[in-house]
Write a structure and sequence with these properties.
heterodimer, A: about 240 residues, alpha/beta, Rossmann fold, 10 strands, about 30% strand, B: two-stranded antiparallel ribbon
Chain lengths: ~240, ~425
């Protein structure tokens, strides 16, 4: 059996705010297998984003260990973390965060540029995903000329184009209306089903929670529940 | 479409806020203009000073007997007391490609008397046909006319005329020690007054036909003290002088060849001082510009820190972010350079060909014994233009380094938090 897409072991993150200690993540132990479609739910301040940052190697845990695709992040240098993020992880943000000076196509293939892939290889992969996600014909538009839903789909392509072990999505539907959210979720479900991409969402969007197969509730930085469920199909 | 390189990303970033880019580029371009203008103007003064300092009287090269200077003895003519075939010397020197013309000169110290007034002065014997091609002294004729060849006529400066209360047409008695041990004296008529604007010159020199002065000083026609040369460009004189030393050797006459850098070393020192001053101007101007551009770049990158954090989160390495911002700064530098060149050179060309004459305010000025017209004549200086262009690009890149470093080492989680 291969490595889990993600494994955490008693991960803690404590912030020091003036004289006060804020325990944002408290001893989270979690394993996600390849191909899972997992939602990390919880109210604001429950530690969802902090946990995603720890898993993404964007911040280091105060204590505990994190493995992505079998690689332990906690021992990595900044340089190794950057390489790991490039090769093993994809990121989707609430505000899309596309680079405004690049076209949709260029944004989507950005991770492949960082990997040093040739233009032909990059375009081949990205154009296929544009087709699959219903964005064909919009490749050369700048983000400012795309709707929010279209921008987020470009962000999804950017996250999955490098075939990462895990895609981390922080509130991906928060800025979208229900129709755009539905389209986006369908796209991600299809990518999960067809390509086997592993998704871990942090959200308090009930639509997203309902469509996940595994729902983890985080309360005060701790896992309050971890349930498998039958996902609701799109309406 | 190919994914842009870091360079192209930087270039495109400049288009996000065209007004800010334009204003920043304008700042750099203004720095470029300021340097080129200041240097060009200083060059103009330098050229004017050297041109007038050598062209008014001295000439760019002088040939004497090696014993003539610095005492300027009446007896130390070219070829010694016997004299020499100075025409052969002139024929030889004018063959040099840098030499435009050559003229013989005779000098004597004497007294000029008129009525109750007597003044000491330098009597300068000139070849009336050749001298105007070597110096501009005769072009400074202010009143009257030039002397007739071999006539007992002279031109004096307006200052000497004022001191001796002389006018054109008046007689003046010249008394001067002659080469035969006697005291030469004769009556000459003032045929013209010259005015150079330099009080020392206008009050000291009397211009006399060379043959007339030779007679007064009891010098044979083949005895001259000096052969003055003009060159196409004063800066050609040092090399031409070296060539002439070799070229004149076969004549078998002991000669000293001096170009203006040896005759007027203070002017050369001033020129060299100016050249080193240019570097200081470049440094000062671009240091001022540097902080302005760095501040703008810092603001620009601060506004985009989220984008840089996203790039870092996606796996970009800090040096790649650094490269993006530096590329942007470099692109800004090139835009500024194009803008600077487009603005600067038409203005420089205009001020070169139609200098603004400030003499109605300042009159003529003298500097290091040379007459300076207060005109804003700006000279072209290609090396300084190239170095300044390079300094502009370096300033832009340097201004981008700190903002680039700030962007490259952003903590992505902190910047992205709450997204």
């Amino acid at each position: 059996m291969g490595n889990p897409a993600l494994q955490t072991e008693a991960v803690w993150k404590v912030f020091h705010q003036e004289a006060e200690k804020v325990r944002a993540v408290r001893g989270v132990t979690l394993t996600i297998q390849p191909g899972e479609f997992v939602v990390l739910a919880g109210p604001s301040g429950s530690g969802k984003t902090t946990l995603l940052n720890l898993i993404g190697g964007l911040t280091r845990p105060t204590d505990g260990r994190v493995w992505v695709d079998g690689l332990e992040l906690t021992r990595m240098s900044s340089r190794e973390l950057a390489r790991m993020r490039l090769e093993k992880l994809g990121f989707i943000f609430q505000s899309y965060n596309l680079l405004p000076v690049l076209s949709a196509l260029e944004n989507a293939e950005f991770p492949l540029l960082l990997r040093g892939l040739e233009r032909g290889q990059r375009e081949h992969r990205v154009r296929e995903l544009f087709q699959r996600t219903g964005l064909a014909g919009l490749e050369h538009r700048r983000p400012g000329k795309l709707s929010g839903g279209q921008q987020q789909r470009v962000a999804v392509i950017r996250a999955v184009v490098g075939e990462p072990a895990l895609v981390l999505a922080d509130e991906p539907t928060a800025n979208l209306d229900s129709a755009a959210s539905d389209i986006l979720l369908t796209v991600m479900e299809e990518l999960n089903r067809d390509l086997g991409t592993t998704f871990l969402f942090a959200t308090h969007d009930s639509r997203l929670m309902e469509r996940s197969r595994r729902l983890i509730h985080l309360v005060d930085g701790q896992i309050a529940s971890d349930q498998w469920q039958e996902p609701r199909r799109e309406s | 479409m190919a994914l842009p390189s870091w360079w192209l990303i930087g270039w495109r970033n400049l288009g996000r806020n065209p007004r800010r880019t334009f204003i920043t580029a304008l700042g750099l371009a203004a720095g470029y203009f300021a340097v080129i203008f200041m240097v060009g103007f200083a060059d103009g003064l330098k050229v004017e000073m050297i041109d007038n300092g050598t062209g008014l009287m001295t000439g760019q090269i002088q040939i004497h007997s090696p014993r003539y200077r610095p005492d300027r003895s009446l007896y130390e003519t070219i070829g010694g007391r016997a004299g020499a075939d100075f025409e052969a010397v002139i024929r030889t020197v004018v063959r040099d490609p840098a030499v435009v013309a050559a003229a013989p000169r005779v000098y004597g110290a004497g007294l000029l008397s008129s009525g109750q007034s007597t003044r000491g002065g330098m009597l300068m014997g000139i070849d009336l046909d050749r001298e105007p091609r070597v110096s501009r002294l005769m072009n400074s004729l202010w009143q009257g006319r030039a002397p007739a060849p071999a006539a007992k006529e002279l031109m004096i400066g307006t200052e000497m005329a004022r001191r001796l209360e002389l006018q054109v047409g008046d007689e003046v008695i010249l008394v001067a020690p002659a080469a035969d041990g006697s005291m030469g004296n004769d009556i000459f008529r003032v045929c013209g007054l010259y005015r150079t604007g330099m009080a020392d010159l206008d009050g000291a020199f009397a211009l006399i036909p060379i043959r007339s002065l030779q007679r007064l000083l009891a010098l044979d026609p083949e005895r001259v003290h000096e052969i003055a040369l003009s060159t196409a460009d004063p800066w050609l004189a040092p090399e031409a002088g070296l060539r002439l030393v070799g070229g004149l050797a076969p004549l078998g006459v002991e000669l000293e060849v001096l170009d203006w850098t040896g005759l007027r070393p203070e002017m050369l020192e001033y020129a060299l001082l100016m050249d080193s001053w240019y570097s200081i101007v470049v440094l000062i101007v671009f240091s001022i510009v540097l902080f302005g551009v760095a501040n703008t770049m810092l603001m620009s990158t601060y506004e985009r820190r989220r984008e840089f954090s996203v790039m870092l989160a996606l796996g970009a390495r800090p040096h790649q972010i650094l490269l993006t911002v530096v590329s942007e700064a470099t692109a800004l530098g090139w835009i500024s350079l194009v803008l600077g060149v487009a603005v600067t050179f038409p203005l420089i060309a205009w001020w070169h060909h139609s200098p603004i004459d400030m003499s109605w305010i300042y009159g003529d000025l003298t500097m290091l014994g040379a007459l300076i017209r207060p005109v804003l004549r700006v000279e072209y200086n290609l090396p300084v233009s190239l170095w300044t262009g390079l300094a502009l690009l370096l300033t832009a890149v340097t201004a981008g380094l700190y903002p680039a470093a700030r962007a490259a080492w952003l903590p992505p989680a902190d910047t992205l938090s709450g997204l």
